[in-house]
């Protein structure tokens, strides 16, 4: 491996910060507008793109800005709501309502400051916000709810709540100087007028960023990427996406403050349940279930068996858990590639931005293992290229794995029936 490969911060979320809608909310695993643009630059205007791991809808928004049509899928209700709010056009009437609603909310906010306003049930909440900051945040939240209703509607009210999400993260002790979220040692206090000013400033920036009309269309739908998806019986010519990496960094961890404050989450148990449904999720209850997980007869490529066996034989305390984690991740991604075929046009091109991993010194070459799955499932023209060196361990890189789907006929799902039994090669533990 060439150790001179650059880290390329322009291929990360850092590049998105000042790009209008792309910079509304920070999510560490989000990939760069620049990288997505490079992937889709030569896609013909009549193409229909699929992003089966929508996240913050970067693919959908970049494609819309270029006049292309995109369907995005995600399993997280907050990200579905957020992505649709990010990717739609807003009428002049809606934007006037938004401006007026923001001013009304700020007036109500001052009257609500001494009320006993609702707070989310976040464990150790004062690690995130000081008690004196929580009071104006709760009052502001109630004022927005009184004016716009609770989050969930896919209309201009989404902009008001997205602005609030930005305020709660800006006033928190969350630190983004690591591959995932950590906390500053000191929790800064924000007074009423500071919170009001910040919210008005963020809302104004959002208003200015939606002024430009999107010439394409992008919609985000609720779907499990491991299941066949049919949105209007569309057959997609391109797939451009970035699934979770097999590195145990959970999206739920970073999304929790937004999801609790907007009531997309109520309890820690809910967070764990949602993470269990996601590919690569290991938050809360997902971890305990992972210990007992077994594959359901899926015929996986042999090289995965070697990697999983190597991890499982280590003397580390959590070796078996991590082996199961790797096993389940590639099992689920194999199911995804399998089911995806029924949604692709002949000649469809797919591009997946992924990262490799290391568990107790055992290298997990994601780019090669996913390529093995694609090959076994009948994809052609399979390859990968290094995108950048990641900021953490020296052996970690980001890749773009690509392939083509040539067959029009449907393959049978690549799993065994109960009568045929499970493959003995998978009986590792």
UniProtKB/TrEMBL annotation:
GO terms for molecular function: methyltransferase activity. Keywords: Methyltransferase, Transferase. InterPro entries: SAM-dependent_MTases_sf (IPR029063). One of its GO terms (biological process) is methylation. This is DNA methyltransferase. It comes from Desulfonema ishimotonii.
């Amino acid at each position: 491996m060439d150790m001179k490969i650059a880290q390329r911060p322009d291929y990360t979320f850092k590049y998105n910060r000042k790009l209008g809608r792309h910079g509304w909310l920070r999510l560490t695993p989000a990939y760069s507008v620049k990288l997505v643009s490079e992937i889709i630059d030569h896609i013909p205007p009549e193409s229909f793109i699929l992003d089966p791991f929508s996240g913050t809808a970067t693919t959908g928004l970049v494609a819309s800005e270029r006049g292309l049509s995109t369907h995005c899928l995600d399993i997280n209700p907050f990200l579905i709501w957020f992505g649709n709010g990010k990717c739609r056009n807003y009428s002049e009437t809606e934007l006037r309502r938004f401006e007026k609603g923001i001013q009304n909310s700020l007036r109500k906010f001052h009257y609500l400051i001494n009320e006993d306003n609702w707070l989310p049930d976040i464990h150790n909440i004062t690690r995130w916000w000081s008690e004196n900051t929580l009071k104006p945040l709760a009052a502001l939240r109630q004022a927005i709810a009184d004016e716009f209703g609770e989050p969930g509607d896919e209309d201009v009210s989404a902009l008001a709540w997205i602005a609030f999400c930005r305020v709660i993260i800006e006033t928190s002790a969350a630190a983004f100087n690591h591959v995932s979220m950590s906390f500053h040692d000191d929790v800064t206090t924000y007074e009423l007028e500071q919170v009001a000013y910040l919210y008005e400033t963020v809302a104004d920036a959002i208003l200015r960023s939606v002024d430009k009309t999107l010439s394409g269309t992008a919609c985000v739908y609720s779907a499990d990427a491991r299941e066949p998806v049919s949105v209007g019986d569309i057959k997609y010519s391109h797939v451009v996406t970035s699934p979770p990496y097999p590195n145990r960094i959970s999206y739920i961890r970073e999304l929790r403050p937004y999801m609790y404050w907007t009531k997309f989450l109520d309890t820690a148990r809910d967070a764990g349940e949602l993470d269990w449904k996601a590919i690569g999720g290991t938050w809360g209850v997902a971890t305990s279930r992972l210990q007992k997980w077994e594959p359901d007869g899926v015929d996986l490529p042999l090289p995965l068996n070697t990697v999983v066996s190597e991890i499982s034989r280590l003397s580390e305390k959590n070796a078996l858990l991590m082996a199961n984690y790797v096993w389940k991740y590639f099992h689920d991604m194999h199911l995804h590639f399998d089911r995806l075929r029924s949604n692709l046009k002949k000649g469809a091109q797919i591009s997946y931005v992924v990262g490799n991993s290391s568990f107790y010194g055992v290298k997990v070459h994601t780019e090669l293992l996913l390529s093995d799955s694609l090959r076994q499932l009948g994809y052609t023209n399979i390859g990968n290229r290094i995108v950048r060196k990641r900021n953490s361990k020296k052996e970690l890189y980001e890749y773009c794995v690509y392939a083509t789907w040539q067959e029009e006929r449907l393959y049978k799902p690549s799993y065994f029936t109960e009568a045929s039994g499970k493959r003995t090669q998978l009986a590792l533990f």
